[in-house]
TrEMBL record:
<protein>
    <submittedName>
        <fullName>Putative GFO/IDH/MocA family oxidoreductase</fullName>
    </submittedName>
</protein>
<feature type="domain" description="GFO/IDH/MocA-like oxidoreductase">
    <location>
        <begin position="4"/>
        <end position="93"/>
    </location>
</feature>
<dbReference type="Pfam" id="PF22725">
    <property type="entry name" value="GFO_IDH_MocA_C3"/>
</dbReference>
<dbReference type="InterPro" id="IPR052515">
    <property type="entry name" value="Gfo/Idh/MocA_Oxidoreductase"/>
</dbReference>
<dbReference type="InterPro" id="IPR055170">
    <property type="entry name" value="GFO_IDH_MocA-like_dom"/>
</dbReference>
């Protein structure tokens, strides 16, 4: 369980705690894969009360394509689990956002793909941003994309009537 003095758990410093810090990366990835999220709602709680930020969050959303998504984040659970499942009519894809886990394809063809993390986790981002600044390529994650994700987080977190603003 995270220590109470961790900066990520103080809403005055980190806003939405672990959810805002970590879920933002997942939402960025989901929108990159499936398109913009056009509607979102959620619920938040401070289940353990160890710190002021939310320690449990659920959210449901709709992509511009009409696909639906849902997520559950519990930062005081008895174990750490990082799993995303994309479930379709002919199979599913399972992967982790942060953990160095294989990507699993299940359906007509079942496959497990090892996608190792780079030694320096931000390497590809730095390379892509460098190319973007030089005008050699368009970076897929620029400020407007971050703003879309920030609005999603705000809608989930600010929906909670018990949240002090």
């Amino acid at each position: 369980m995270p220590a109470p003095e961790n900066w990520r758990t103080d809403p005055a410093i980190a806003g939405g705690g672990y959810f805002a810090d970590l879920a933002s990366h997942g939402f960025d990835l989901f929108q990159y894969l499936a398109g913009d999220i056009v509607e979102v709602t959620g619920f938040t709680a401070r289940q353990v009360g160890q710190y002021a930020a939310e320690d449990a969050v659920t959210a449901c959303w709709t992509f511009s394509s009409g696909a639906l998504g849902m997520g559950c984040w519990n930062f005081v659970a008895d174990r750490r689990e990082d799993r995303v499942e994309l479930i379709g009519s002919t199979g599913r894809i399972t992967f982790a956002v942060f953990e160095d886990e294989p990507l699993r394809l299940e359906g007509e063809v079942n496959e497990v793909l090892a996608v190792p993390c780079h030694e320096h986790i931000q390497w590809h981002h730095v390379q892509a941003m460098n190319a973007h600044i030089r005008g050699d390529a368009e970076h897929p994650s620029v400020a407007i994309e971050a703003l879309k994700t920030d609005r999603i987080l705000d809608k989930v977190l600010l929906r909670n009537p018990r949240r002090p603003d």
